[in-house]
Amino acid sequence: MSTEQVTADPRRWKALAFISLAVSLIIMDATVVNVAVPTIIQDLGLTASDAEWMNSIYALVFAALLITAGRVGDLYGRKKLFIIGVVVFGIASVLAALSDTASTLIFARLIQGVGGAMIMPTALSSINTLFVGRERGIAFAVWGGTIGGMAAVGPLVGGWLTTAFSWHWAFLINVPVVIIVLIGAGMFLRETRDVHARRGLDFAGILLSSIGLAAFVFGLIEGLRYGWWEAKEGIEVLGVPWGLEVSPVPFAFALAIILLTIFVLVERARGRADKPVLLDLSLLHIRSFSFGSIAALVVSLGEFGLLYALPLFLQGGLGLSALDTGILIVWLALGTFIISARTPALTRRLGARGVVRLGLALEVIAIIGLGVTISLDTNTWVYAGWLFLYGAGVGMATAQLTSVILIDVPVQQSGQASGLQSTFRQVGSAIGIAILGSLLVTSLGSMFSSALDDVDGIPQESRSGLVMAIEESAGAAIPEISAVVEDQLTQVPGVSPEAAAEAANDVQRAAEQSMVSAARITMLSAAGVVFLGLLATFALPRVRSDEDEAETATTPAGSD
Question: Which among 316, 467, 500, 546 is most buried, taking Cβ atoms within 10 Å?
């Protein structure tokens, strides 16, 4: 942390409430929209490619602009950029709600990504600037608890809005929240910036980092659709037929590596020449920041991979509705909220590193518990218990890990550091969804194909189509597979209605059991990844106690 002392802002706790609400808006929006996707596809007539791009474009833009937004906030004012980001996000939400074509909706999601990228790093850097010592740990606990809770409540809200009203409300619900945040931030959030920074923007760094990160996230997101190495048949990239045998994904990764390597070299050269830089590479020499960011990347990989696989299992394997899935996942929110109130006291007893490790250990235990106990006959209360424990772990680990990452970062560099650590998390989540999502789909397809060998009465030519339907839908087609098979078999000469119904039920059971097995493999793999994140925290240096940090002074560091 900076050696500069900061005077406590009497409005800081009120400001924290609106900062947390704004970040929760981003998190909840993603989960709300995920639940509404099937209805949006049906209502607007979206293709599978359109639906994927509706989510992909948001992730691409969000990840690509985080570092840039953090630096702009440092230079020109964190509050200013935060408010602009909230306004942009709100306008994009209205545009998305009013969309009647795929292109309009995809464009609106792109603009939402821009707004979200402005909000996230400026929110984190503002917390890091406004709070010090013990209060910073409490502030990050509140921030993390609010975000974790909203992430879990999102599916419930999305399911209810989509079912009771329409998918348009999945976006319109953001508008009143945006208005509340704008009023609160305008009244209580203090403007801060890096008063010592060299003026001017590093346009070369912005271009290289944005395109490089976008290419990397593109490869992660599109690997399943385009093929990780060999191109799948009939694929199109941005509407243009892809004529090469090699998938576009390796090219995207190669471009990312080249551009990000050049980015590092350019930043190093500009720093030596005393020119403005987008990213001060000296941040990577801060051990708590560098090792903490690596741990955050690995943990996000496991956490987001799990949160991607779990709803697919609950809806595809167990046949729960979107609303019922949201209700069950609320137990995760309860665990997060309840433990967040105890996190500051735990931090005083165990230290920030100890709380992070305890939280990650609880996450590992809960994910293993889910993986071991899932079956078609398991009582949903068992899942609720594991999700509650998992939520408690998230409530401990997420906020305190963020606090550890930023604790030694000079206040004037908070924006850069916040943007970079958010980028690590975003990349980790994209990797997690790509790797664990691929594992789930691949395992599901393989196991279902094998299970069909034991089902009598299914023509060989129909089996590949059934496997493809289950695989391409990531299990979402399982609840309807029985009706589809029965309808097909009743049209086959010589097959009685009773035999068709029996075979259809066998196929349904085989698909559900395959989903259980695939989800188990995915969850246990996610537990292994989070465990690696737990091990990574042992490389973190000892975090200074609250008493080691200054809590009073005459001039707020980096403020107007």
Answer: 316
